[in-house]
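Table 4 source record.
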Amino acid sequence: MTVDTLAKLPAGETPRAGGLGRRQVHAVAACHFVASFAALGLPPYLTAILPALGDPQGRWAGVLYIVPTVFSALGAPLWGRLADRFGRKRLLLRAQLGLAVSFLLAGAADSLPAFTLALVLQGFLGGTFAATNGYLAAALDGARLSRALTLMQGSARAALVAAPVLVGALSPWIDPHRQYLPMAVLPMAAAVLLSLLPEPTRPAAAAVRTGDAEGEAGGAIGSAGTANAGRAGAADEAEPAAAACTPLTALYAFEFAFVFATIISFPYLISLAEERLPGVSETTTGVLFALPHLCYLAFAARTHTAFLTRPRAGIALGFGFVALGLAGHAVAHSLPVFVAVRLLLGAGLTLGLVCLSVLAAEAVRGRAPGRMFGTLEFVSKGGAVAAGAVAALANGRFGTAAPVLVGTAAALLAAAAATALATPSLKRWSHR
């Protein structure tokens, strides 16, 4: 079972007017996948790129690694609001073309300031993930939307696994720095394909509350759920009442905490593995890095089916598995143990990402999708930036195992909070 099955419509159901069919959702996912290649595949090679730009030791690699993330976070709320005002398709095309322009500038840059400016523009003009989610949310809702959001996460995970491999394979023939130039073709091609898709319309039952204060603590997910009671499709009728009780601020808090806890282990994983496993090959460390993402690709669809009606319970379990996996990194001294803890982290990653998608699909009902997903992207990128900064500080002061211990503590705290919210759902589940 893979994420490829997630965008299927229920048997006998056809897309609504203004909605998207299965092939169209898959086309959107494919566009996001190809556009992510340069954005995800080239940053690991910054230390090889920077010497030719005037930074012989690659000292600016750590800072430049997060520059696109920072400016993506800053731009996401603005682009989301503009999408609600001027059209989601138009702003999604803007994001793809923005990536293409920034890649061309990065590939042509001949100095460190010019390259840095290109990365700033990549973050600010890009934001394809938030733009894609806003586009989908304008055409789908309920279980259909959560399946599509889960598929988008799958496309991102697939690019994260495949892109660095492709960049490395091309490096003997094309310098990683100059690979930005041909990579610019990918978002351009995605923009052409997306231009053929329809401008989506909100599901008829969801009246958009343009005056919503997205950060209000009292905001409730799925407040328009009862208006959809007459919709066709058994999957929508099974939408969880539990999700409708989760405050919107809790969704944002879970998103931040989950991104922070999972990302904090990434920057120094290779160093930790090489320290604990002397003589380990680069191929092996690459596989260890990819294992959690491969878990997502393999089990996201089944996880979505299992936790569609109990997403808060899934969030609590996800944080628990993340905490166990990260804690295991601190004591792993053999390859089998490393594989086991990476698989534990993969289980947590899969549960967390899938259930966050279910909660986000409920949250957007009755809300302007661009605005909500722009805010969610801001929160997510904020968690990633915080994770990178804390990982650098912890590693510098306490060693390579420190970042995973900080992540363990964060995941445990979030698991406790999520369990408190999920307790009614867990009780209902235990009686079934």
